[in-house]
């Protein structure tokens, strides 16, 4: 079944604990936590301090998306803060293998993300080491942007390789996901949908999540 990872970026920032409990009540699988540094991306969001504060609130797996330069420097803090999955950007990571090893040795799952303009060849050498590939379908930095259609081809291309090589890697897509684009991403081969504005803005988040979880490869 498709996993849904609502982005805390769209939760009420003055009450993130309640946002986390809301997505748990609504049947989400993971909580997607967007960490931005104002350097790799133009926006600044939250850091390890907030992840640590949220940890006792819920047992939901924390799907932490690091949009920061020199991520390896901060990985130990995010591990000790209680991250279950840590995803780095291939554009910011100097020694990808070493960084993924640090994450895994720290007991978390390891992900690698790529921007809409970054070719998939950049992540292919690391596929065997990954638990998650996070395909950005908007330029990272802000919620509420429109889905970039060409990313569907990237999803299918990665899905083909993952299936051919029988790898146990999740393919997640992040940015501009709603019930229409989400369905098409799943048909293209995504197994996880990360979404902020369309889930937190939904009339009924639980119903929306239920609908999305029912999407399948065959439509
Ligand atoms: C974008 C973040 C996304 C973002 C998604 O930089 O990585 O996770 O919150 O928000 P929506 O779903 O509104 O595009
Ligand atoms: Zn994200």
Describe the structure.
This protein has helices at 16-25, 48-54, 75-80, 96-105, 151-164, 179-188, 197-200, 205-213; strands spanning 3-6, 31-36, 62-67, 85-89, 109-114, 132-136, 170-174, 192-195. The mean pLDDT is 98. The chain has eight helices and eight strands; from the N terminus they run βαβαβαβαββαβαβαα. Helix content is 32%, strand content 19%. An eight-stranded parallel β-sheet has the order 1-8-7-6-5-4-3-2. With 219 residues, the chain is of the alpha/beta class. Bound molecules: D-xylitol-5-phosphate and zinc ion. Residues 7, 9-10, 32, 34, 65, 138, 140-141, 143-145, 174-177, 194-198 line the site of D-xylitol-5-phosphate.
What Rg do the Cα atoms give?
A: 16 Å
Molecules bound to protein? D-xylitol-5-phosphate, zinc ion
Structural class: alpha/beta
Strand order of the largest sheet: 1-8-7-6-5-4-3-2
Strand content: 15-25%
| SSE series | EHEHEHEHEEHEHEHH
Largest sheet: 8 strands, parallel
Mean pLDDT: 98
The total of helices stands at 8
Unreliable stretches (pLDDT < 50, length at least 5) are none
Task: Say how many strands there are.
Answer: 8
Distance between the termini: 13 Å
Query: Based on CA inertia axes, which overall geometry fits?
Result: globular
Helical content (DSSP H or I, runs of 4+): 25-40%
């Amino acid at each position: 079944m498709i996993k849904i990872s609502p982005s805390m970026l769209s939760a009420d920032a003055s009450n993130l604990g309640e946002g986390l409990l809301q997505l748990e009540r609504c049947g989400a699988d993971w909580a997607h936590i967007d960490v931005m540094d104002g350097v790799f991306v133009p926006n600044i969001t939250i850091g390890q301090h907030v992840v640590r504060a949220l940890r006792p609130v819920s047992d939901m797996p924390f799907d932490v998306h690091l949009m920061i330069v020199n991520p390896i420097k901060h990985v130990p803090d995010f591990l000790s803060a209680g991250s279950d999955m840590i995803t780095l950007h291939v554009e910011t990571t100097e020694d990808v293998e070493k960084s993924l090893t640090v994450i895994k040795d720290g007991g978390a799952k390891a992900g690698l993300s790529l921007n809409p303009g970054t070719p998939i060849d950049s992540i292919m050498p690391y596929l065997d080491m990954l638990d998650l590939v996070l395909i950005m379908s908007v330029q990272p930095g802000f919620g509420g942007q429109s889905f970039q259609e060409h990313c569907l081809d990237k999803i299918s291309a990665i899905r083909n390789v993952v299936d051919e090589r029988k790898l146990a890697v999740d393919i997640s897509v992040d940015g501009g996901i709603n019930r229409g684009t989400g369905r098409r991403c799943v048909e293209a081969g995504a197994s996880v949908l990360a979404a902020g504005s369309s889930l937190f803005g939904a009339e009924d988040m639980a119903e929306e999540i239920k609908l999305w979880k029912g999407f399948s490869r065959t439509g």
